[in-house]
Amino acid sequence: LPRTIKSVLEDQSSSDAQVFVNGWIRSVRSQKQVSFANVNDGSNLKGIQAILTTEQAKALTTGASVQLKGKLVASPGQEQQRELQVEHVQVLGECDSTYPLQKKRHTLEFLREIGHLRSRGNTGSAVLRLRNAAVLGFQKFFEQAECFNVHTPIITSHDCEGGGEVFKVLPASDYETQKAAPTAMASSEFFKKPVYLTVSGQLHAEILATSLSRVYTLGPVFRAEESQTSRHLAEFWMMEAELAFINDLNQLLDFTEDCIVSTTKYVLDNAREELEFFNRWTDKTLLERLEKTVNKPFIRMTYTEAIEVLQGAQQSGKIKFEFPVTWGSSLQSEHERYLATTHFQHPVFVTNYPSGLKPFYMRVDETSESSKSTVGCFDLLIPSIGELIGGSMREERYDVLREKMIESKMDLDEYKWYLDLRRYGTVPHGGFGLGLERYMLWITGLESVRDVVPMPRYVGSCRY
Ligand code: 4AD
Ligand code: MG
């Protein structure tokens, strides 16, 4: 394969040797005799500076794709150590002046309008290199923790979270039937029952954890979220882990914290250039914040304690919440923000929420009184963003789970396989799901999930 600009620049033996460089022109600056072009192929932040004659540079326009032949020489400038003394220019694809990514700072809103080109710019490409580094960091963590990477299905007959935010899947031919007889929409002719795009791979990951012991999966999940917020997408990527034979919630919290700390360390060590870019342009506290994330233990508190903190803040007049803070009501994003962003300014695990607020599969706490029944679960809240991870111990006791499923009016036949996992050699187990785009907000300082996924899908929008 032809070499990337990154590898050409890093290879110390390439000085004075003839090299080829492929990429897109970011900018051209011409003086009388000599011209400078910045060429970038996406492999690093700064690309390479090319020195050519002004005659050669005439053929170059911003956005054009080129192959340059030349020698790497030491650069007299401060910006880079080495630059390309060009001998030969070949334009692969011309680009005219309507190219929207001219050299200047564009707003994130403008870049969203040109989503098919934004990854050719600094912000768009740095996000994707960081995203790649984050995924590698997660994979390295899971590998050393002896978790197997597994693949859970996208089409499923279950609504794991019970939130009713599922997209139904139908073959196109069923839509034709629907036109003739609208009631035929109830189920898919193809699968002979209603099926959906998955909202979480958890239940399937439980099948695999109760056979391989420790698994993780990273895949797209889909939610028909009506909320038009900077934290919600209709299609997003979830990193899910499921672990059998863990003793209790504390062990799960330790594992989850290790996972975030280890991945963030990996990103700090392996994507420094990108983090420095975001620290300069997006969030001047980014590096400091990430260093603190890896060096200071996360806060841990129960839901009940969190309610006390929130009530205390409200009573002392520190803050006025829009939604009431009472035991039993869910934490709204204003509450989550107060805890992580204002009060602790650090990631916070909030644990043991009331059962009534959480899905059927979470393990009921034995110690909780029946009037204030809680489950062995947690949300990890992070400053500015709110919930990054949701996880729990899973109800492994057959009878307790069956009771809960009946209470939740679930179809026991449909979930027989899930109960079977408890019927045949049940084990204590638990896991979590992390929204990859929200983690990306944390490590870029960007504010909208629409800017950290290449082609965002959200209510009202599915371009490309
Ligand atoms: O808290 P959630 O709904 O948890 C589950 O789905 C569990 N079954 C996961 C598990 O235990 N295996 O979702 C997990 C995370 C959230 O904490 C949040 O970061 C992210 O997924 N998330 C979203 N991210 C972007 N857009 C949305 N619409 C999201 N909904 C949840
Ligand atoms: Mg959640």
UniProtKB/TrEMBL annotation:
Give the GO molecular function terms.
Answer: asparagine-tRNA ligase activity; ATP binding; nucleic acid binding
Recorded source organism is Mortierella isabellina (Filamentous fungus)
Q: Is Transport tagged as a keyword?
A: no
Against HAMAP family, the record matches this protein to: Asn_tRNA_synth (MF_00534)
- Quote the EC number: 6.1.1.22
Q: What class of enzyme is it?
A: ligase
Q: Which residues form the Aminoacyl-transfer RNA synthetases class-II family profile domain?
A: 138-454
Q: Which residues cross the membrane?
A: none
NCBIfam families cross-referenced by the UniProt entry: asnS, PRK03932.1
- Descriptive protein name: Asparagine--tRNA ligase, mitochondrial
Q: Which InterPro entries match?
A: Aa-tRNA-synt_II, aa-tRNA-synth_II, aa-tRNA-synth_II/BPL/LPL, Asn-tRNA-ligase, Asp/Asn-tRNA-synth_IIb, NA-bd_OB-fold, NA-bd_OB_tRNA
Keywords of this protein's UniProt record, alphabetized? Aminoacyl-tRNA synthetase, ATP-binding, Ligase, Nucleotide-binding, Protein biosynthesis
Q: Which family does it belong to?
A: Belongs to the class-II aminoacyl-tRNA synthetase family.
Q: What GO terms describe the biological role, i.e. biological process, of this protein? A: asparaginyl-tRNA aminoacylation
Q: Name one GO cellular component term.
A: mitochondrion
